[in-house]
Structure formats: structure tokens, C-alpha cells
Design goal:
Blueprint: H1 3-20, E1 42-45, E2 50-55, E3 62-68, E4 71-72, E5 85-88, E6 92-98, E7 101-106, E8 115-123, E9 126-134
Parallel strand pairs: 1-9
Antiparallel strand pairs: 2-7, 3-4, 3-8, 5-6, 6-7, 8-9
Length: 137
Amino acid sequence: MTKKIKLNIIGIFIIFNAMSCSTSISKPLGEWDDIIKLSQKEATLSAENSSILITTQGEWWWISDIEFDGTQIDFSDIDTTQNNFIIEKPEFKIERINKTEIHIEISKNTTDSVRVLYISLEAGDYFDSIKITQLSD
């Protein structure tokens, strides 16, 4: 190959590389707009066996983390990207009824302490959470 052909190939490569690195991303990482749109982000429930229904306007989200009274909850065996699923533990139950409804139930609080359930949601690069506080008995 001649030197001129090699330079042309390198020039074309540089142009294509520059075009592929354009700033066409609509939002920087971590700065997406709210695409989940929770009906409530916080709720306080009584000490009795209580439940709440929270809705979303967005349909494409999943649960990324659950914490109950400061303890991480393992739910790795459940695919929370599905349109319906149930995460059930002795203290609580989280059910995605359909694309836009989350039913959260907490068993009776027989302790002298307030209990807190955090549910972290993710949709692409947007993160949100639900905080459920349950009053003590």
C-alpha cells in the first residue's frame, strides 16, 4: 500500500471515530429526569398489619435494593424487571401487581420501635425510592 492510501485510511478512521464519540446522550449519567413518577415516596403506616398501594406513571423500572430496619434484604432469586412478582419476607411483602402498581404490606409491629422499609427503584440511569415507616405497638 502506498503512503497516500494509508493516510487516507487513517483519516477516514479518525473521522468515523470522532463521529461515534459525539455528545448525543440526552442527559449526563445520573441526571435523567424522573421516568418512574411514584404516586408517593413516603408513607407512615400503623403498627397493625398495614398495607399501601403505590402507583407509577412509568412502566419500565425495577427494584434495585431493599432495606428493612437497617438490614439489606436478599431478593436475588426474583427478577424485578418482570411486570409482576412478589418479594415475601416474614415482616413484609412487596408485590408488583402490574407495570404501574406496587402493593406493600407490613406485618404487625409488636416491638417498641418504629420500623422502616426502604425500597430503591431504578429505571435506566434514574434512581428513586420509597420509604415506609411503621409505627410501634
